[in-house]
Amino acid sequence: MCLDNIEEDALKQAKNLANLPFAFSHICLMPDTHVGYGMPIGGVLATNNVIIPNAVGVDIGCGMCAVETNVRVDDLSRETLTKIMDGIRELVPLGFKHQKERQDESLMPQGFQIDEMAVVKRQYLAALKQLGTLGGGNHFIELQRSDDGFLWIMVHSGSRNFGLQVAEYYNNKAKKLNQTYNSSVDPKADLAFLPFETDDAHIYYKEMQYCTQFAFANRKLMMERIQHVVSSVLSAVIFEPIINIAHNYAAWEEHFDTKIIVHRKGATSAKLSEIGIIPGSQGTKSYIVEGLGNPESFMSCSHGAGRVMGRKAAIRNLDLDEEKRKLDELGIIHSIRNKSDLEEASSCYKDISQVMALQSDLVKIKTELSPLAVIKG
To answer: Quick one: how many helices (H) and strands (E) in the chain?
Structure first.
């Protein structure tokens, strides 16, 4: 794998990671890497007995779900696809919108001691209204056509406000702790850490796991409601089991005969034979992949195409009519209407085909998916 067009600031962040006294072996940058907060997005960091909240990020557990159906796309009209998308908008709150009513508590992650987790406990009731909601930014719901002609559904979303609150709470704790320790880690690097000798590290790990499971529960509920809409519009639809992956989390794993904490920030696990999802951008292909278990990447791969243009730069520099024309010519039912929507235009992202070519030693492609209709957060 070769990455030869990395941003200077992202490379600087990677060097900061490599200089951490507790970094294990080497730092991995996936082909979708771009600058993040503290750590590059598309980065993989392994550490010895230390966890870094900013190396997980603020949208803990953010990830993808995908479901294959038995519906032949050639049998669907544009009007039918539009009807499905309209139905989804009625059932799934988008952007900053929440549910009007609290959702059933049985849908929340189970097996956790809520009283032990300060942030989860504080945010729990609010989260019941966030369950089953898409969120904003690059989160999306997409109807897609597989390379063999079948309809797929894909959802990209995260842990909503849960993840943000947990990340900020424990990053602040880590910064105060590092000041007390007179840590050698430069505070300007935004990589404050929690050693597992501390209770805070263990509690953050539990809260992070809860957020990751909440993010899956969130995607799963949306997917179930999307399936309800599809079934109400079409007849005799069969849905295959859901595929789910997260790309913002940390986990205890064994690599190179050592038990370490692997932080994946905008990166996906790609263990041998593990099924994963790598989305493109609206207007480009997405992929269902199978991991090759490459040890040099800590068995990881990219989480998407990766940005080449910031949100503000996209609004300043991209042409609204041109971006709409590109999608219209592809026949995609899209969500670009105003200048602000250019934040998520395809031109903001790397060429997904090049990204996939650069990680042929990390994953193999099982299914190619082309967008038919897109809802953005």
So the answer is: 8, 15
CA-only gyration radius of the chain, Å: 20
Catalytic residue among 139, 156, 303, 334: 303
* 336, 40 contact by CB (below 8 A): no
Tens of pLDDT along 272-292? 999 999 999 888 999 999 999
From the list 185, 174, 140, the residue with the least C-alpha distance to 346 is 140
Contact at 8 Å (CB) between 39 and 45? yes
pLDDT band with cut points at 50, 70 and 90 for residue 1: very low
Number of residues in the chain: 377
Residue among 112, 141, 138 nearest 127 (CA): 112
H-run or E-run covering 30: strand 28-34
Q: How far apart are CA 202 and CA 197, in angstroms?
A: 9
Residue of 266, 230, 67 whose CA lies nearest to 158: 266
- The torsion angle over the Cα atoms of residues 258, 263, 267 and 273, rounded to 10 degrees, is 30
Task: Please provide residue 372's backbone torsions phi and psi, each rounded to the nearest 5 degrees.
Answer: -110, -45
Residue 116 Cα distances to 59, 124, 202, 305, 321, angstroms: 21, 13, 11, 38, 52
* CA 154 – CA 242 distance, rounded (Å): 10
CA nearest to 20, candidates 232, 204, 193, 251: 193
- Cβ contacts of 213 within 8 Å, gap of 6 or more: 61, 109
Closest Cα to residue 28, out of 62, 63, 3? 3
Place 3 in a pLDDT band, splitting at 50, 70 and 90.
low
Task: State yes or no: is 303 an active-site residue.
Answer: yes
